[in-house]
Amino acid sequence: MAAIVEIENLRKVYDGGFEALKGVTLSIEEGEILALLGPNGAGKTTLISTICGITNPGSGAVRVAGHDVVADYRQARRMIGLVPQEINLEPFTKVIDTVRFSRGLFGKPRNDAFLKDLLTRLSLWDKKDSRTRELSGGMKRRVLIAKALAHEPRVLFLDEPTAGVDVELRKDMWDIVADLKAQGVTIILTTHYIEEAEAIADRVGVISKGELLLIEEKASLMQRFGQKHLQIDLQEPVSDIPETLASYGLILQEGGASVQYSYDTRGERTGITALLNDIAAAGLVLKDIKTEESSLEEIFVSLVSEGAA
Question: Average pLDDT over the chain, rounded to whole?
């Protein structure tokens, strides 16, 4: 699939010498959902702002659908919708007028049928005549998405779109993103909520201190870096792990009622069969066994820690 956003050796240094982006290179495919993860100050918002033309790059190049964001700014910007992190809406303007105005800013002809469909999909049509100051925080975020989509962009940037909203609304937002993807919209998402990336992203990028540490398909990332954990519940609690089991690196849990064994998913052998045999030989009686995989959050923390080292 062709890349719709191309970033080559992008650097940005602010006044005072702070280097926010350090040679970021990235291609984003048309129709994919890319989640950018990183701690505060990692460079996520600077990267988005540069692509969207809000911040000028120090050096390097950015193209959106083949249009350079500096040399061909107007054409590049028409391709982009941006949902900012901060809610900043004119409080006394009606929802429909706010969205209609955003469409007009990009030179698009009036299309009430399209806007009705857009607001309906975002559960905003019954609020179209409400002033934005009358809306809840969650509804205001929906208005921001409607504004960003009003001119029919091919690329949508969501900068912390669910920050501060409740869990139910967050899941609604995930459904909205999935619907947009089905329509062919490319979505770049920055988030602090690791489960958000785990739920909806096709690929995950990890950025820290202005550097892109990794960009990879989510499933491949979790398989490559993930570990599986085997939790073994015991019939009778133990105070210590027998010395004959020391080589397995078992962790005693829950007051001695269970032990945890971790193994690499990439290994040819898990060692589980030998472990279970040795547990029986040590006189321990099993009650239950269950496995779980590393979460994306654990992988993210590990990558950022390595990048900081």
Answer: 85
The three state secondary structure string of 122-140 is CCCHHHCCCEHHHCCHHHH
Query: Is 299 domain-assigned?
Result: no
pLDDT at 218 over 90: no
pLDDT of residue 265: 58
CA angle 199, 197, 58 (to 5 degrees): 160
Longest CA–CA span in the chain (Å) reads 78
pLDDT band at 294 (very low <50, low <70, confident <90, very high): low
Rounded CA separation 233/250 (Å): 12
* Residue spans of beta strands (DSSP E) within 1-134: 3-13, 19-29, 33-37, 59-64, 67-68, 80-83
User: CB of 22 within 8 A of CB of 49?
Assistant: no
pTM: 0.73
| Domain end marker among 223, 246, 277 | 223
Report yes or no on 281 lying in a domain: yes
Range of the domain at 238: 227-293
Neighbours of 201 (CB within 10 A): 24
Residue 123 in any domain: the answer is: yes
